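Supplementary notes for students who missed Thursday's class. We covered one full example, reproduced here. Read the sequence, then the structure, then the short commentary at the end.
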Amino acid sequence: MAATNIGKTKRSTDEIINGAINRQQSWLEKRRNFTRKFLRRFNMFNAKESESVKTTHENNKSTLRSYWFPMLCALLVVLIAVVVMLVKINTPVKIISPAVPEPIIKPVDKTNSVKEITKPEFDIVRIEENGKLVIAGRTIPGDNVSIVMNNKVVATEHTNKNGEFVFAPANAYKPGNYVISLIDITKNIKSENTVFVYISERGYKNSTSLLLTKNGSKFLQAPNVADGDLVVSKIDYLESGRLVVSGKALPKLRVSLSLNDKYLGYARVSNYKNFGLGVDVGKLKEGATYKMNVRLHDGEGNVVADIEHKFVMPKMSGANNTFYTVRRGDCLWIIARNFLRKGILFTTIAKENKIENPDLIFPEQNLKIPVK
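Structure (token representation):
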């Protein structure tokens, strides 16, 4: 039994192996057949493609032979177009523009512009009813400014964020003249302008404060001027034809003189309220009537007081000399200019009166003026 089973097993194994080999050979044969068919078809496609390529080349050659002239013309047209474009690009283009007028440059209006403050300035200097002063101004914000009165520092104030300061002393000032200036002590800068203050004995209405600048003067407080503030104390008419008028008026104002409504000139009133004005009027006729006007003017030139004097010209006495009483603030130069036409002739007056030092004369001193 054992031998019979072994033989049957061996025969079945051989059959399995032979079947596998047969199947493998059959698969390989099919594969070879498929490959042969594929290659055969591929060779046919290549043959057709080569024939079509040959036909295309031949067609192209025939097209070139048939259309060479139109193609050449088109090429020439393209070349000409390119050349024309290059010429246009290289040719400078002239642009003609209409004439434009030159711009008119107008000056900048600085009236409303903010002014930069570099030096102390005055805004207000006012004399109150009780004789007290109020001084206000401005300088650099946060600085200290000193108020100088008649060359003496009377107070120091600190400016606010806007650079403003106010000084209002508690005590009233006596009647008289005061020159006020400012000093920024932080920057050590003095004010460019000063203020002249005249406190009148007749009260604050007749007092004045005048801002003095290099371009002239300007009222900060104008007085209530009356004819009583203008006094003519003496009129001299010299044989040389020179008229000299002297008197008193409010300080720093102007006094003008006219004869028969003809304007002759003006003089400035001194700090001590004195004025003297000498002009050439020529020979006045004896016995003739003349009208002389002495006028006081404010800072704007307006007439605020007027003295009219009518006189009949008397017969000249033929005196060679006249006399003049020195007033406070006088000097020989001004006296010589008024009486002798030239201030340099002050040496003549000094010699006539035996004055050793011409710079030293005294109020109430009586001087002889050698008019000839």
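Commentary. Confidence is low (pLDDT under 50) at residues 1-9. The longest strand covers residues 303-312. If anything here is unclear, bring it to office hours.
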